[in-house]
Amino acid sequence: MKTIFLKELKRTRKGFIIWSVMVGLVAFLGIMEYPVLGPNLDLIEEALDFIPKAGQLVFGVYNVSLKDPIGYYVVMYYWTGLIIFAHAIYTGASIISKESRDKTAEYLFTKPYPKNTIVTAKILAALVNILIVGLTATIMSLLAMIPITGESAVYGQVFAACAGMLITQGVLLMLGLLCSALFKGYKAGVFSAAGVLLLSYCLMFFVQYIDAPQLSFISPLTFFSVSEVVKGGLGLLYVLLSAVIIALCVYFTQRLYAKKEMIV
């Protein structure tokens, strides 16, 4: 398992470095714009009020105060999440199925390793991938807040939001893995995972539009709504729900790949 795990990390290192750089730049440069926008925030908020609620949701500016450093961070979290969550679900959908795309499945799955061992090694490598990207966003977000505010409470709020983001990454990763296990081809797995992410965003917008936080369970993107997390921290119920989803996805992915013909 160790050999497969290390080879997968080496194979994907360029990818997660590129994703990490993208996330770091968005997180850091986005928040560093705050001092520049500061004098014009009143005008910006007045302009945003003319945008319909649906539009505010799509642009991640609904029900937040840009005058407050943590409110501005909430907006930037939304844009950072567009990259991080897409990376997580794509990594899950492609980490194993790409063997079929690259015509390496026959080589890998005829090695003297049980399929479960290969799949487990791939899952661990995928977890390291999303962890690196998530930690990059966390570190850059915390560093970028230093020149904006000296309030220690804000750093705790940012850290809690990033912890929620990491858990959400894990859920999306496993949903992507399950999609790849359900379909034989690489493209089918990736497209179905993209559909799951799109549906998750649509459900998130729906929950926010009707102001029904009690329905947050219908989308993994609302398990740890950043606006709620910065106010009250991570909800234990959704931490447990995330753990259950992750465990079930791993279980069914292992079962499906154990029966799946990968040599194509």
Descriptive account of the structure:
The model has no long low-confidence stretch (mean pLDDT 84). The protein has helices at residues 2-32, 34-37, 41-48, 53-58, 69-94, 98-101, 105-109, 115-145, 152-182, 186-209, 226-232, 236-259. It is globular, with a radius of gyration of 20 Å. The protein has one domain. It is mainly alpha-helical.
Nutshell version of this structure?
The chain is mainly α and 264 residues long.
Set down the secondary structure blueprint:
Layout: H1 2-32, H2 34-37, H3 41-48, H4 53-58, H5 69-94, H6 98-101, H7 105-109, H8 115-145, H9 152-182, H10 186-209, H11 226-232, H12 236-259
Which terms summarize this structure?
0% strand, mainly alpha
CA(first)-CA(last) distance? 23 Å
Give the rounded overall mean pLDDT.
84
Rg is 20 Å
Helix content: over 70%
Strand content: under 5%
**Number of spatially distinct domains:** 1
Largest sheet: none
Give the helices and strands as they follow along the chain.
HHHHHHHHHHHH
Unreliable sequence segments: none
